[in-house]
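## Example pair
The file below holds two records. Each record gives the amino-acid sequence first, followed by its structure token line.
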Amino acid sequence: MTDMARNGEHTGGTPTHVYVTALLSVVLVLGLTVAGWYFIGPDHIVYAVIVQGGFTFLGLFLGPLLVDTVRRRYVVAAREPRIYAVLGADALRRFLGRVGWNRAIDSMREQEPGRTRLERQVRGTELSETGHAVGGIATVLLAMAAAIANHLVGAGQILLIGILVHAYPIMIQRIVRNRILRHSRR
């Protein structure tokens, strides 16, 4: 047995503690989601807001594990940015730039692995998109559970807030990645 295996470390690629952290985050968010369902109630707007915070937390831990799966999903079709602009995502991106959010995100992306700033920026959009996709999937599953349990108001609130918290950031990441890659080809 190697020292790595004896110490509980995964010997290939991702260290064991990353998987343990991801598993613990799933258990924690699932526990808080269930507890909130019973103590706050799925039809309360506070519940919808709180679970989105939990799903964002979940995406922070699961996103890095999933970012390199099915890489073709990061390809942005030529028509996508126009569709996102019609849906208001580009206006939201510009607003976030005016209030300083994008500067904060850019500085975080400088810490990403990559030889060049371009590689770090693209990787950052991929990580963000993946994390928000995890949150979006959790949102849809919870909304379906609420609808099945006949909590239609709660299901609608969960979906609405989930769209704001996860769908729009995914659209923004795709717009940004498209612009970065388009400008890098010039």
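Second record, same layout:
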Amino acid sequence: MPDELTAIDPLGRTIYLPAADYSTDDNAIGVLDDVTAVIKRPAVVIEVKENEKTEYYYFRSVGWNKALLIITHLHNGRWEAYRHVWNPTAEMMSNVLGRGKQVIYTV
């Protein structure tokens, strides 16, 4: 598996996916496929600006009964996915939406 992969989001940004961050999952290649799918074709993208830092949250369902939230930030001059959350709670999504603004919404 390569050290890192990339995915281009609908806003044209290249998002780096350090493979080491996702290799702890039993099905690492499947997880990376899901992560890249969410970044390339999100249902919702939320921009959160706090303390002179900007993060983008990418959300989408993957499959019939799973949802995935990917969190990215600018690190060393490039956008990196640094966290993912399977099936985020409504409370978590409400918190993110309350702190940020929705920049993409698709159905």
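Notes on the second record: The mean pLDDT is 86. Strands lie at 4-8, 14-18, 44-50, 53-61, 67-75, 78-86, 101-105.
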